[in-house]
Amino acid sequence: MDNFEFYNPTKILFGKGMIAKLDEQLGKQARVLILYGGSSAEKSGTLAEVRKALGNRSFCEFGGIEANPTYETLMKAVDVVRKEKVDFLLAVGGGSVMDGTKFVAAAVPYQGEPWEILLKQGETVKEALPLGTVVTLPATGSEMNNIAVISRKETGDKLAFSSPHVFPVFSVLDPTRTFSLPARQVANGVADSFVHVMEAYMTLPQDAMVQDRYAEGLLLSLHDIAERITKAPSDDYDLRANLMWVATQALNGLIGAGVKQDWATHAIGHELTAKYGIDHARTLAIVFPAMLKERREQKRAKLLQYATRVLGLTEGTEDERIDAAIARVEAFFEGLDIPVRLSAYEIDQTGIDPIIAQLKEHGMTALGEGADITPEISRKVLERSL
Ligand code: NZQ
Ligand code: ZN
């Protein structure tokens, strides 16, 4: 196991009715800005519940943060924060609103042009406003990590940054606030969480017993959830609660501590979103099975471990078990009604070149747990997913 530092200060308030506890989390004098997305938080009643929980405290609101939040929109929120002398940011939404809020938190006190935060991947962030979240979409794990992914319309970039200063102080996870999600977003959440676990786990054996068993527990849960969630009623509290908690833990740093991680699928996926506007989770379903096929020798031992311990595949030769495991991964996405091919988005061979060019432009030229996935290998991965 590699050396590691693990730090995660986010307090979790989990369960039905926990939004009412917002009041206790905030100082009496706090000047709060609620940040939210389009219309879903208003329609579902989540915003009303949040406003009520804030009581007589002074607060203002900033709506309109889009899916794949943009720098252009978020800089408007930075202006509001400065003008209204806000000192606490409260994100109400999914990954896009939470990530956008992290960017605003870091951009407000930033010395210099805030886009630099993305260009330097967060290294230049020295401070940030405190933030909390009320989660409405279990998927990204943004509620308990220090990562944000921000897009810029002007340049067509989609870049990530991380900083210890942007961990949420607290996150409220009330599964009932997910009941209003469209089936497509629920499926996206299951798929994104699954790939988050896989990016940490499906690498090479590293004799990390706890990380492996923990990841396998999350994967078993996700297989179980995926099996049931498309048929279950949208108000199945326990199922939504399990999805919410799995999504949070898939990317809160624990399973990735002390092990080499992959993240090549995410790097390629971000470029697919930037170029073609495909939902984040859906890009992962295109890339990840193809990545497993292309990297089956490098990932051989872990593919076999996953086949045995998670899928219970014990019959046949090693190669047959690996084939079966990869087929099960494809079936996992397809069972959620998420396509695993570029052709489903009418992208053919000619659509691959721009993605490779973007990877090069963003320095994504040595990806994966072995830092040996070159743009040429990324091209082969995408060709396998045509
Ligand atoms: O905008 P509104 O009207 O609120 O609608 C949203 C949005 O259209 C809707 N929605 C959210 N909660 C709802 C709801 N609709 C009905 N009922 C509810 N309770 O869902 C749509 C998608 O929301 P979004 O926040 O964009 O989805 P998600 O949570 O999947 O976040 C995706 C973003 O997170 C980034 C992605 O790249 C993408 O930009 N990621 C962030 C990560 C992180 N911070 O660690 C890691 C991930 O790998 C990912 O890259
Ligand atoms: Zn993701």
Automatic annotation (TrEMBL):
Catalytic activity from the UniProt record: a primary alcohol + NAD(+) = an aldehyde + NADH + H(+)
Record's keyword terms, sorted: Oxidoreductase
Entry annotated with the keyword Magnesium: no
The Fe-containing alcohol dehydrogenase-like C-terminal domain, residue ranges: 188-356
PROSITE patterns for the chain: ADH_IRON_2 (PS00060)
One Gene Ontology CC term in the entry: cytosol
One Pfam family, short name: ADH_Fe_C
GO MF, one annotated term: alcohol dehydrogenase (NADP+) activity
Alcohol dehydrogenase iron-type/glycerol dehydrogenase GldA domain: residues covered: 9-175
Domain of life: Bacteria
Cofactor: Fe cation
Keyword Coiled coil in record: no
Coiled coil: none
Similarity remark: Belongs to the iron-containing alcohol dehydrogenase family.
Name of this chain's protein: Aldehyde reductase
Organism field: Bombella intestini
